[in-house]
Amino acid sequence: MKIRKIDSLENFSGTVLVPVFETSVKNILPVKFENLEISSKVFYGKKDSYYLAEDKGNVYIFIGLGKTIDYKSLKTIFRRIASKEKDTLTANVSLFLPEVFTEEQAEAMISGLYLGTYNIGHYKKEELHPFLQTDFELSILSKSDFSKSISKALKLTQAQLETFALVDLPPNKVTPKYLAQWAEAKGKQYGFKVEVLGLEAAKNENLGAFVAVGKGSKNEAQFVIMNYSPKSSEANLKHIGLVGKGITFDTGGLNIKTAGMVNMKCDMAGGAAVLGAMQLIADLQLPVKVTAIVPCAENSVDAKSFLPSEVIQSYSGNSIEIIDTDAEGRLILADGLSYIIKNYNPGYLIDIATLTGSSVATFGYECGALFSNNDAIVKTIQETGESIGERLWQLPLWDVYSKDIESDIADVKNFSGKAVAGAISAAKFLEFFTQEHPAWAHLDIAGVAFLDNEFTKTKHATAYGVHLLTKFIEKIITHGKC
């Protein structure tokens, strides 16, 4: 997407996008722009409405924003325009940005327009979106300089589009090795180091829980380790640790799922969010150290699959009784958390996963479940999520729930066996492997990572977490702490 700034439409020919804040349906004054006047009887800026007009060969799309608007809504509105009005958009599009707009609003609009180019039909023969054509140019009509916001929006959206594809592509394409190779390619492109442990290397490292989950699949598990440091090395950089669940397909294992398996290609959405965040962090050259681990495996059904009632050894040295092979995500995360703490000891530690149906039962599809032992992290990450429309709400980690993971035969069991408090007992299981890390948070995003929306006929990826993790890290950089 080529972008340039213009001062007027004098020599412009194409489509002009004009955002309009709401006036009133009874307003006697029309909406005015250039030589156009639109009566309030037909358009007055109502949120989610838009109006097309033509003047002197140019097409004008007036876009209603309502009286006030939040970041997510603004992004969605402009994604809708780019997605639904492809036939109206030409090789030349101009976006009017009034001086009253903030940097964040400019970022949201550009992000939305770029996200609108996404097409879930990866295996269909379809024409490229106008914005992706080589001759396309977006002109920014504004007296203010929004170049920094626009540049950041393009980098953000590129990472989110990559994440969309990782989650939406089928599981015969996105295998553990595919994710590992993706990480290696992006590491070379954007500037972060990648190390991949295959099955034998994982066994040698005593990643027992990780190995157990992946050993039933013909697609070899891959333990992906990424390290980013800025090119301009600075002293006393904050060190952030990220761990993302990378289950490329989840049958449930021998405790096989009886419903909803068709959507289980999305069970690596937490890992995809970490991968997308690593691309974005490196692309922005943030002044921070980041270590990220994505344990990638396929939970399949085979003669080699791990069994309910098995006792396995984890990387931490603790034994785990397997109550349910469909509670596999927490097993690979347990080894990921233990590994990152022992070998890298980051100052902050966040894990993100499509972990439990319980979180969906609690919050529906509106927000992720947040667990943390650090009040400052809770406050910062919730505020961050609220500001961009990636909401989180905290659930407790009270000691009373510890009994749900107590085992008679092993140090801990992977499932409570109860039909209640599933998200909490899963979080307590993960907490067991954090070695009381003082700044840890767990994000259960099962209800927000893969959704029905207006942009596709089937469920598809949201890239939830890419922006959230990156913006959270930016806040740590800016304020020195949470």
TrEMBL record:
Domain of life where this protein originates: Bacteria
Alphabetized GO MF terms: manganese ion binding; metalloaminopeptidase activity
Keyword Manganese tagged: yes
One Pfam family it belongs to: Peptidase_M17
Keyword presence, Glycosyltransferase: no
BP term (GO), one: proteolysis
One GO CC term on file: cytoplasm
UniProt entry keywords in alphabetical sequence: Aminopeptidase, Hydrolase, Manganese, Protease
InterPro entries named in the record: Leucine_aapep/pepB (IPR011356), Macro_dom-like (IPR043472), Peptidase_M17_C (IPR000819)
Domain Cytosol aminopeptidase: 166-469
Family (UniProt): Belongs to the peptidase M17 family.
Protein name in UniProt: Leucyl aminopeptidase
